[in-house]
Amino acid sequence: MDLLQQIIAKAIKANKCIVLPEGEEERTIKAADIILGQKIARLIMLGNRENIMAKAKQWNLNHLNNATIIDPDNNPKADFYANMLLELRKSKGMTIEQANELVKDPLYLGTLLIKNKEADGEVAGAKNATGDVLRPAFQIVKTLPGISVVSGAFIMIVKDKNYGENGVFVFADCAATPNPTEEELAQIAVVTAKTAKSIAGIEPKVAMLSFSTKGSAKHDMVDKVVNATEIAKKMDPTLKIDGELQADAAIVPAVGASKAPNSEIAGKANVLVFPTLEVGNIAYKLVQRLAAAEAIGPVMQGMAAPINDLSRGCSVNDIVNVVAITATQSM
Fold it and tell me: Rounded distance, CA 269 to CA 78, Å?
């Protein structure tokens, strides 16, 4: 059983409820049929029921009757959610008129369903930009206690099983925060380790990457990684983490033994934390293309409930997989 199959099996067992705000979007409807058919998750789809069921009939889909469908434009509980939103945002100057309009927005309604514990997580982004998906999440669901930053991890599966955990790595941040502070970088390390354990099923060995290994270069950017490593150790004293390490020192045993002989992580890392978003994003795309690696994600981290953002170029299978990941995250 490969990693994706394991994730799907865990999701089926978890029986979580995931909300799909883009309920009328073609790929989302087709993915929902697969998800419901395989019982990967229970689904709430946001959109007009007649439109959704007409498309399901057109495409010979058989499982959409098992979804809960809520039309944001004709929602009998609209007043309830508007008052809920007003209570959450009135300190920021929100009015009831604004709240009444926002609860018609599927992305806002989706996060309110999570806040009200009617759904365990959300998957969106097939037709909405990342900022639009995450804005309501920040305002309503907010971040985990002790975490102030959202990050995006990719589970990377490379063909050479000598690297990582039998070929499995988790890379972060590759999707969200351009230039994290020392404290934010430490938070990214801690939550990425949890992602590695809960979703990839590996015991995390975290390398904080830089262009320097153990003082081989001096620069403010190196100091940031060193300081972030120490902060992460204080945040989670059980965490297996080391830095600063160059990429080869982190993943190649011989190089790790030569450059960082006293490190328990060097040469054995399976979680790679990059100093900035540009580095992480470039790295995962290069590994994906040049090493023909499988890249699963992004898995959004740091939110108080799992809210995952799709690429607008995503496939039906991508949506199915991200829903399974989201259900697993919410366990």
Answer: 49
Q: What is the pLDDT of residues 184-230, one digit of tens each?
A: 999 999 999 999 999 999 999 999 999 999 999 999 999 999 999 99
Q: 133 and 312 in contact (C-beta within 8 Å)?
A: no
Residue type (1 letter), 71:
D
For residue 223, what is the domain's CATH number? 3.40.50.10750
DSSP state of 73: G
| Residue 40 amino acid letter | I
pTM reported for the whole predicted model = 0.90
* Of residues 314, 113, 276, the one with CA closest to residue 180: 276
Render pLDDT for 268-282 as a digit per residue (tens, 0 to 9): 999 999 999 999 999
Q: CA 181 to CA 173: how far, in whole Å? A: 13
Per-residue burial over 44-80, b if 16 or more Cβ lie within 10 Å, else e, is: bbbbebeebbebbeeeebebbeebebbbbeebeebee
Inside any domain, residue 182 = yes
